[in-house]
């Protein structure tokens, strides 16, 4: 089998104690040695998605901080209204609540449904949600506003 044919195993030249090499040995290609310090990891299907939501309320409640119970009730209402029984079955982990900002974690396969349900929900008193960002990597959700501050007047 020739060296350029598929399936040919590359061989290292044998050690010649005389120090001379034959023409056959000098034309052989050395097989590349694996680099033990380099490694690759591919995550094909992330388990969780991280969503940053902003709670919207009526002007009469401006300045009141959002509490965990209200955030959970309003998000559950949005999921139930948009997705029915399936929406109530989606596990939601509240990671952080700060003023009107809420960071949650949901299963990755439910991310788009949760964003659509939360963003499309409002109650009769004017409460609602705005999706500020979402990602499969939590670090990028917190610092990203996608230029939304241009439209908020801040």
From TrEMBL:
It holds the Pfam family Pop8. Residues 48-121 form the Ribonucleases P/MRP subunit Pop8-like domain. Residues 1-41 are annotated as: Disordered. Transmembrane segments: none annotated. InterPro entries: Pop8, Pop8-like_dom. One of its GO terms (molecular function) is ribonuclease P activity. Residues 15-24 have a biased composition (Polar residues). GO terms for biological process: intronic box C/D snoRNA processing; nuclear-transcribed mRNA catabolic process, RNase MRP-dependent; tRNA processing. This is Ribonucleases P/MRP subunit Pop8-like domain-containing protein.
């Amino acid at each position: 089998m020739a060296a350029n044919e598929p399936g040919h195993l590359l061989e290292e030249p044998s050690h010649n104690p005389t120090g001379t090499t034959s023409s056959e040995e000098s034309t052989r290609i050395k097989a590349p040695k694996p680099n033990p310090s380099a490694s690759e990891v591919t995550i094909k299907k992330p388990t969780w998605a991280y969503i940053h939501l902003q709670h919207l309320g009526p002007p009469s409640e401006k300045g009141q901080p959002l509490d965990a119970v209200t955030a959970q009730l309003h998000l559950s209402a949005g999921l139930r209204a948009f997705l029915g029984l399936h929406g109530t079955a989606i596990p939601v982990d509240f990671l952080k609540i700060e003023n009107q900002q809420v960071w949650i974690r949901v299963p990755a396969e439910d991310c788009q449904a949760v964003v659509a349900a939360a963003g499309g929900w409002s109650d009769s008193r004017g409460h609602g949600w705005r999706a500020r960002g979402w990602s499969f990597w939590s670090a990028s959700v917190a610092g990203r506003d996608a230029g939304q501050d241009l439209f908020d007047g801040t």
